[in-house]
Amino acid sequence: MNPVFNQSINIQFPNNISLTIKREDLIHPFVSGNKFRKLKYNLLQAKAENKDTLLTFGGAFSNHIAAVAYAGKEQGFKTIGIIRGDELFDKIEENPTLKFVQENGMEFEFVSREEYRLKSEASFIEKMKDKFGDFYLVPEGGTNELAVKGCEEILTEEDSVFDYVCCAVGTGGTISGLINSVLPNQKILGFPALKGGFLNDEIRIFAKKDNWNLISDYHFGGYGKINLELIEFINAFFEKTKVPLDPIYTGKMVFGVIDLISKNYFPAHSKILLIHTGGLQGIDGMNIKLKQKKLPILKTND
């Protein structure tokens, strides 16, 4: 585990507002950001239960799938990935994430999108046990009580100076951990990467406080959707700060925060902490799609 540090964003904002980004993306080269946090206690639990196999779920460019494959290999687990989209069966070599995952020993089970929707049902889990034997189940995105426990460790004592803590939201585990660990005078803002209002209920399963809010105006059309404006923003932000952002989660969150600053959402002199949750491994796959659409690619290095 590499040391995480807070990096000041040297951009002048109105009303003396300051931005700082917590570089959780640097925590590990392959199990970065919130994936490291979410897996920490789940892997310990799997070992405590004497399980030797991890089974989990994800899509074609899933950060979670990549993290489980690498962490599983590093910790001596066999790994199985239930992958959304049976059309991907013969496209592994064309997909940087799936290729990486396969190289790290994960066994795939490709299922149709219809069947994938049943992944939480007991009958589906039993079917997987019949096929693969006993396993430790890690939910899609990694979110469960143990994942939230890990995410409660993101904030440290030095973060008490911030008025707002902002993060991207996928399955709700990371923001739940942050909510549980912030001080009473701090506010958590979550920026969902998906359309739909179901996340409030998901977060309330794990969150123990009420000092949080979801801002649902910056999903850019839904999960995995991206446009020229977002690409240009991410690339310009990298040019100014040397901080790479991913287009699925952190790019949209940072775009949203800076847009809200311009709209006077935050009080003057606010100190804002952005949580960089990683996700950079998916950029190679996204850039393949962007080239096909004749759009600029995302920059992650000079």
UniProtKB/TrEMBL annotation:
Q: Which organism is it from?
A: Flavobacterium anhuiense
Q: What is this protein called?
A: 1-aminocyclopropane-1-carboxylate deaminase
**Ranges of residues in domain Tryptophan synthase beta chain-like PALP:** 17-278
Q: What UniProt keywords are attached to this protein's entry?
A: Pyridoxal phosphate
Give the protein family: Belongs to the ACC deaminase/D-cysteine desulfhydrase family.
Cofactor(s) recorded in Swiss-Prot or TrEMBL: pyridoxal 5'-phosphate
Q: Does the keyword Nuclease apply?
A: no
Keyword Transferase annotated: no
Gene3D superfamilies associated with the record: 3.40.50.1100
Listed InterPro entries: ACCD_DCysDesulf, TrpB-like_PALP, TrpB-like_PALP_sf
